[in-house]
Amino acid sequence: MVCSSDTTVRSIVSRTTICQFITFELMRYLLLPLIILYRLYFAVVFFTVLTILYPVFWVMLLKDANFEKVFKLKVATSRVILFLDFIYLRRLSVPKNLPPGPYVICANHSSYLDIILMYPILPKTKFMFIGKSELLSWPVLNIFFKKMDIGVNREKRHSAMRSIIRAKQEIARGWSIVIYPEGKIPADTPKLHPFKSGAFKMAVEEQVPILPITLIDTWKLFATDPPLTAWARPGICRVVVHDPIPTKGLEKKDLVNLRQQTYDVINAPLLKYNKKVIDKF
């Protein structure tokens, strides 16, 4: 009798899940023209704003001394792009009196929006990104990774080493470094994937805190694949800026615990606000 009851429950749950999936796909199909239109609009806004400001950035980036001014202009530019694309930031939690850094900033990575949003999230914490070397081939954006931000080719050891050395030099100058420790945008976001060790090794070696950040909604505001038809819409992105995790006194033997601690901190809000979606994976 118990087995029969369990089978019935599983059957009902299965049918419910299938119905939810069909409903979602039908809604997505009906909204597809609007999704494509919004994604095209987003791209036009993004590249138009950056193209207009490109000469200004190009001149300013001729001198390293201008990097802080460039950072402030990036903050302003990101705010304009997000405003024109009807995407708004809601900070659910931010530490009081957050020191200016430097930090190794670690966040979950579920959308290209993550990069744009980082500037208004931390407008007073000057930082540089470590990003894939492929960004050097992107029009307009490549100027930042040629001059200021740090491109890395993970398949070439000497490229990775140069990037690490440069990042450590910038930390010594007071700049924070943003690294997405998942290493890529996973296909099953918002589920958080295992972290790679590079960010935590750098933080321990330089004895600077980890600053964890959770981006709760970017996966559903601007999905990544397929490029033209993935889900996209205006809306509010909730974010949690967590308390810094100190690394003073930590050694190589502490890397695993530090990595897991950071993972758990970032993952907690994802599980809280996206649990139904994550449980499907």
- Rg over CA atoms: 21 Å
Q: What is the total number of structural domains?
A: 1
Distance between the termini: 30 Å
What strand order characterises the main sheet? 1-7-6-2-5-3-4
* Approximate helicity band: 40-55%
Briefly note the structural class of the backbone: alpha/beta
Mean pLDDT: 88
**Count of DSSP strands:** 7
CATH topology heading: Glycerol-3-phosphate (1)-acyltransferase
Compressed to H and E, one letter per element, the order equals HHEEHEHEHEHEHEH
Number of helices: 8
Largest sheet: 7 strands, mixed
Which outline best applies?
globular
Strand content: 5-15%
Q: Output the CATH class name.
A: Alpha Beta
CATH architecture classification:
3-Layer(aba) Sandwich
Q: Would you identify the regions where 5 or more consecutive residues have pLDDT less than 50? A: none
